[in-house]
Every structure is written in structure tokens, then in C-alpha cells.
Amino acid sequence: MALVKFPTRTVNTDAVNPFVNNVFDSLFTDSFMSDRLVTRVPAVNILETDAAFQLELAVPGLKKDDFTINVDKNLITISAEKKASSEGEANTYTKREFNYHSFSRSFTLPDVVNYNNIDANYADGILVVKIGKKEDAIVTKRSIEVM
Fold first, then answer.
1. How far is CA 92 from the centre of its chain?
2. Around Cβ 63, how many Cβ atoms within 10 Å?
């Protein structure tokens, strides 16, 4: 059985046929299709301070051991893989949206990065990666008097 969204407009504003246009609109905006088109990578916030860059990834439901962080030249890759076991799962879901099995995100690092000063912390579903800057790249603040 197919569900078809019928036009609710009373005025014919479409040039060809409003029914045909609405059928195609509902086909591509239906939640069934949009769920398949959603990217399966976590959202990220990138913050720059005077001394470091900070990447924050929203990755709930994972453990610290699931993450792999690699730095290769000027590219940092953050990935995770969670082994899903379906043993003993008696629930039948109507819709299941949150199941990160694996993802990989890569970011290009600028030249001012200190590669020896990279730390990662995972708490409350947020992975925070702090990437320090080189000493010569840190701008010292000072006040300048106008004469």
C-alpha cells in the first residue's frame, strides 16, 4: 500500500499539473526518504582560542576504547567503530535512528599546530580533542598607548 499526499491547495498555481508536482514533492520530502539521506557522521564544533584549537564531536553511546585518532602530516582523522551485537535482542523496533556503528571525520590542520600537544577527552557523549598551537603562533596581548 502506498500513501500519496493529495494537493490541499484550491488555486491552481502550478503550470503543468498540481497533482503530479505534489506527488513528486511528497516522494522526495517524505520522512522515509529523508532518513536514508541523512549523513551518519556526528556533528562537530570547532573552537579556536589563543593557545589551542578545540574539536567537539557529539558521539553519545560510545566508549573511550571505540575511538581512533590519527595524525598524518597536516590531517587529523577521528574515527570510531562500535561492534553491534544482535544476540539476545528481543525488541522489534518500528523505527531505529540512533545506532552509530562506525564513522570517520578528517580535518586539515593549519601550520601553527604543535603536533606534540594533542589531547583527547570523552565525557557525557562529547569527544573533545584539544590541539595546541606552537609558541611562536600564540599572540600575546598587550595594550598600546596612543601618543
1. 27
2. 9
Tell how strand 126-133 and strand 52-58 pair up: antiparallel
pLDDT digits (tens, 9 = 90+) for 37-78: 445 788 999 999 989 999 999 998 888 999 999 999 899 999
Q: Which helix (H) or strand (E) holds 129?
A: strand 126-133
The grid coordinates of residue 47 equal 573552537
Which domains are delineated in the chain? 1-38 (no CATH), 44-85+99-137 (2.60.40.790)
* Amino acid sitting at position 15: A
Q: Within the chain, where are the H helices?
A: 18-29, 31-37
